[in-house]
Specification:
The complex is a heterodimer. Chain A is α+β, with helices and mostly antiparallel strands. Chain A contains four helices and ten strands; from the N terminus they run ααββββββααββββ. Chain A has an eight-stranded antiparallel beta sheet with strand order 1-4-5-6-10-9-8-7. In chain A, strands 2-3 form a two-stranded antiparallel sheet. The relative contact order of chain A is 0.14. Chain B folds into two domains: 82 residues, no CATH class; 85 residues, Nuclear Transport Factor 2, Chain: A (Roll), CATH 3.10.450. In chain B, 27% of the residues are buried. By secondary structure, chain B is α+β, with helices and mostly antiparallel strands. Helices cover 29% and strands 32% of the residues of chain B. Classes of the chains: A alpha+beta, B alpha+beta. Chains A and B meet through strand 7 of A and strand 7 of B.
């Protein structure tokens, strides 16, 4: 009887001390998952990374909008950064859900977009000269990037259903190149957010949605 | 003794699975009728009280190598169609599909005859967009904007969303001599997807389906 009471007290104290925060995966596991995701997404072979931990503010969807009510549990995330450059920046980084251990987002540092070939440079210059036909240029960028994604997503991720379509997320065009970002909606409800650089058609980031609780940046 | 009882239990389970051919446990027709009628009444703002229920089976499909295929290993999809009102003969005014395994009503459709006749203003709008049937000049954009704007308001009113609308994926439109219709997917941030067919310019919802409420089929939506 006394043993039982002691056990109950220990469990209560453990809950109190943990502040009800969930059990998290370790940094080593996060590094492993993050590196594997980076290597898979960007076709590289990185072997080491630095891991940092973040707590993001959660949000609640009520009455048609996301609100921070104060009742939300934080979103626990590891950031795994790999391929340190001479200037100290990292070329790749990824987000790993610290509760599930799932790597769900990978980014290529925009400072290190691939250099343009001569043909790509020509395509960029022509696009920038187009003046009044900006809509046509952005349509071309979106179409080319979406076509690339239509091929790339099923190659990289094992889809369980067909691609339903694309949802535009915006784009830009500057002196060093352009980009387009959009959502790839799979028929089973899986959604990928992807950014491609243009005209190189290089994947700059990919995020698998709904792998954490809703966060503040969804507002 | 206990061991014998356990073996007997396993034997009974195996025998019942064999006799049912692995068919899952289905909800009753009454339960399907209740779910189907509730969905029809909610979606179309009507008050139907009786319906004809029939059970149907659909082939399942497997998504392999970028397409849906029938491998022969798929489990069938069991569903009920709930047609209201209960008529002796002829078509029903409203039909719903109910997953016979889960009891969830996931699709509702109403007869096209429920679409109101175009008002003078609507006919003018339609006529302008129709461009005398010149396929190169038909204005699909006005229809798509009107219908998707409507759906962006209608979906959150009708369904309890757990996340915001991420966007609309087009799925085709058609014009004919007496109106037009368009169909599209409304994608929610949490992965819920609704397929909607609407008549334009009356902005009447003809059909709505919540995707992924059954195992995959080769059929659309």
């Amino acid at each position: 009887m006394i043993k039982k009471k002691i056990l109950v007290v220990i469990v209560c104290v453990a809950f109190l001390l943990s502040g009800c925060s969930p059990r998290l995966v370790g940094e080593a596991k996060a590094k492993e998952a993050g590196l594997a995701f980076i290597n898979h997404v960007f076709d590289v072979n990185e072997t080491d990374a630095v891991v940092s931990y973040q707590e993001q503010t959660g949000t609640t969807f009520t009455d048609g909008t996301y609100k921070v009510t104060g009742e939300e549990q934080p979103v626990y995330v590891y950031i795994v950064a790999a391929a340190k450059q001479e200037d100290g920046q990292y070329l790749y980084y990824t987000h790993v859900n610290a509760e599930t251990g799932v790597a769900y987002a990978a980014f290529r540092n925009t400072m290190f977009a691939p250099e343009l070939t001569a043909d790509e440079q020509k395509a960029l210059e022509e696009a920038r000269k187009s003046g009044n036909n900006k809509d046509d240029v952005y349509t071309r960028i979106s179409t080319e990037c979406e076509n690339a994604a239509q091929k790339w997503i099923p190659e990289k991720f094992e889809l369980k259903a067909g691609i339903l379509g694309f949802l535009d997320g915006g784009g830009s065009l500057g002196s060093t190149g352009g980009n387009a970002n959009f959502y790839v909606v799979v028929r089973d409800g899986t959604i990928y957010h992807v950014t491609f650089s243009w005209p190189q058609l290089t994947v700059m980031d990919v995020t698998l949605l709904n792998q954490t609780r809703p966060t503040e940046d969804m507002r | 003794m206990k061991r014998k009882i356990a073996i007997l239990g396993v034997f009974i389970i195996c025998a019942s699975l064999f006799l049912t051919g692995g068919k899952p446990k289905l909800i009753s027709e009454d339960e399907a009728k209740e779910a189907g009628l509730a969905f029809i009444n909610h979606v179309f703002d009507v008050n139907e009280t009786d319906a004809v229920v029939s059970q149907a089976v659909q082939s399942g499909a497997t998504y392999i190598d970028g397409e849906y295929k029938l491998t022969g290993d798929e489990q069938q999809i069991y569903f009920y169609t709930v047609a209201a009102p209960k008529l002796q003969e002829g078509q029903s005014e409203y039909t719903a599909c109910v997953n016979a395994e889960t009891g969830v009503a996931y699709s509702a459709e109403q007869r096209y005859s429920h679409v109101p006749k175009m008002t003078v203003e609507q006919r003018e709008k339609w006529s302008k967009a129709y461009a005398n049937g010149d396929s190169d000049a038909i204005d699909y954009v006005s229809m798509d904007i009107d219908c998707t704007d409507f759906a962006r308001e209608w979906i959150p009113q009708k369904f309890n969303l757990n996340a915001s609308i991420l966007g609309i994926v087009d799925s085709g439109s058609s014009f004919d001599q007496d109106g037009a219709n368009t169909n599209f997917y409304v994608v929610i941030h949490d992965g819920t997807i609704y397929h909607i067919t609407m008549a334009w310019p009356q902005l009447t919802v003809i059909e709505v389906t919540i995707l992924n409420q059954t195992r995959p089929t080769g059929d659309i939506p």
